[in-house]
Amino acid sequence: MSELVKSIQENVVFFLQFMAVVAAIFIVAYVVEKLVAKKQAVTERILTTRKIAVIGMFSAIAAILMLLEFPTPIAPSFYGMDFSELPALVGAFAYGPVAGVMIEFCKIILKLLFKPTSTAFVGELSNFVVGCSFILPASIIYSLHKSKKTAIISCVVATLCMTVFGTAFNAVYLLPKFAQMYGMPMDALIGMGTKINAAITDVVTFVCFAVAPHNLIKGGSVSLITLLIYKKLSPILKKTNQA
Q1: Is residue 127 helix, strand or coil?
Q2: What's the angle, vertex CA 196, arms to CA 190 and CA 198, rounded to 5?
């Protein structure tokens, strides 16, 4: 009984931590977007009815893409590769940081409706937080000066931010939390990485040789696709925004 109570307490604490992180990221996105709007003398509301409708559509697309994850040979199976950041980045470029964060959050909720968590919600937290570490820098830089050159710079910076942040976040918080929630020793997780790459012998080498390249490839791929399609989508999204 005591083990059950302890498990429930741990899950409740983790849920509250998850929601606190979500709230903090939303606040950061909102404050930054307000500051940029003030600097550029933009009076339009951050969220309009049409923006919310498009955000909902992009969230659904992102949730589907999140379900279509596939394993990579450089990381254990619980680090699936997906392109769910693609709709979030397009939405963030079109409508700002708040829209991007909303798409990231809504896709997690929708994904859980279609497919329950298989990682004690640690995977979902990781996807949201690391995804936002990619979406926020890209959308903030791009919103300051919207041009092709700025878009490229924002994507490069965002990919590097996601790689560095994702690597550190996994080492300091996510991997230990994953081990705790699943009741697994860290050595077992490290061992899963060792089977893929013999150079992985501890947490540091795990995140450097598995997590970092995983995020680098994902960020680079999403950035490239966004840069190729955004110019064609932009007139449609801007027309929707103005309607």
Answers
A1: helix
A2: 75
Long-range contacts of 196-204 (CB under 8 A, 24+ apart): 196/73, 196/74, 196/75, 196/76, 197/74, 203/171, 203/175, 204/171
**No. of helices (H) and no. of strands (E), the chain:** 10, 0
Predicted confidence (pLDDT) at residue 241 exceeds the cutoff of 50: yes
CB 161 within 8 A of CB 137: yes
Cα–Cα distance for residue pair 182/180, rounded to 1 Å: 5
Give the Cα separation of 107 and 243 in Å (integer): 25
Q: Are 63 and 114 in contact (CB under 8 A)?
A: yes
Please say whether the beta carbons of 96 and 139 come within 8 A: yes
Residue 56 tokens read as 């909902």
**pLDDT, tens only, 122-161:** 778 888 999 999 999 999 999 998 899 999 999 999 999 9
DSSP state of 70: B
Burial of 182 (0-12, 13-18, 19+ CB in 10 A): middle
Q: What are the pLDDT digits (tens) for 167-187?
A: 999 999 888 887 877 778 888
* Residue 171 CB-density burial (10 A; 0-12 exposed, 13-18 middle, 19+ buried): middle
pTM given for the model: 0.89
The full length of the chain comes to 243
CB count within 10 Å of CB 241 equals: 14
The answer to whether the beta carbons of residues 158 and 132 sit under 8 Å apart is: no
Identify which of 6, 40, 28 has the alpha carbon closest to the alpha carbon of residue 129. 28
d(CA 139, CA 226): 12
